[in-house]
Fold:
Amino acid sequence: MPLERYVPPARPSLIGLSRAALLDALAGIGVPEGQRKMRVKQIWHWLYLRGATGFDQMTSVSKELRGLLDRHFTLARPDIAAEQVSVDGTRKWLLRLPGERPDAPSHEVECVYIPDDDRGTLCLSSQVGCTLTCPFCHTGTQRLVRNLTAGEIVGQIMIARDRLGDWSGSHPSPAPQGPHLSPPPPAGEGKGGGRRLITNIVMMGMGEPLYNFEAVRDALEIVADNEGLGISKRRITLSTSGVVPNIVRAGAEIGAMLAVSLHAVTDKLRDTLVPLNRKYPIRDLLEACRSYPGLSNARRITFEYVMLKDINDSLADARALVKLVRNIPAKINLIPFNPWPGTRYACSDWEQIEKFSEVVFAAGYASPVRTPRGRDILAACGQLKSASEKLSARERLALRAMAMTD
Ligand code: SAH
Ligand code: SF4
Structure:
């Protein structure tokens, strides 16, 4: 089946355009050349610092230009199909993305916000489905339908900031609401009490971000831009199943933190758990990790390791794991397997996870698995859930382990 393309609407959204593309868009509607740079700066400010949802809010832009912009463009974010809020502040949004043709079915991806004492992490999707077929991953059972655009990736953060009231300064007007949404708090009055709520971004939702390279790169450029969304690259983590050539490219062109889904310590097992290993085996993967630019004790690669009962969770595996990553500045995230209907895998027993993590800890790596905070649980990364489904404590634990990449 061929991949679907994203077909922009007649009035496209300006969200996700690079500064250069925004400049071209202004040229295209006849904004005089001498004004364009200044207008780009203004629009950028309203979009990414203030969270404007309509051109009428851009009070520093002339009324005439606001009208012109409104005739040609929108500031639309993806539609929110459902929102779930947990008592501990975890939130999940199910987002609806358009199909290729107006009469074609729409698609859904997830975006999850996980607050913690010292940070707030937003988990983003990069593709609808995935080309890869890791057998323990629910997304791996779905074919790749299409890549998200840079605008749809940035749009996930815009929506989260809208809904959390996480824009700086006074928000020009309330963000759009739907019948299924409660009103968001006014900006600056979110639970952060002046502190930014979204401090970290992880690309750990649906899809393989390094197989949607350009859109992810362009989106993260806006996310990290000081005058844009302003989340530094040290606080952005790209999770990959190990697309070796694109890890090298990401080091050169993106420069975010890297998380690698290792999950097995031998090629034999990893060929099954992460089939991409047949193309890029562990040796090549670790070599790419070792050469990743800017690594230091403060800037480590995170190795993700999903705990699958009787598959990869022996203490011999734990010892081999720490040996494997020994010469790389590394963190190890043990992720309790998050079961889904029909899966042939089970999560390791809690005692085994603890023993495994003790071996990892004794080798000098902090053990990131924590107990869940509550039973009222609503969110998971790495697999698509239906809007009404509630998650188990274990799912929540998996989510938090994944988010712990600081
Ligand atoms: N495609 C990328 C990023 C998305 S998946 C990747 O594979 O790295 C994010 C993380 O969730 C990966 O480490 C993935 O292996 C893990 N994951 C997927 N399904 C899971 C499940 N059911 N339980 C626990 N972790 C899972
Ligand atoms: Fe794709 Fe990552 Fe799931 Fe593997 S784990 S199928 S790469 S989303």
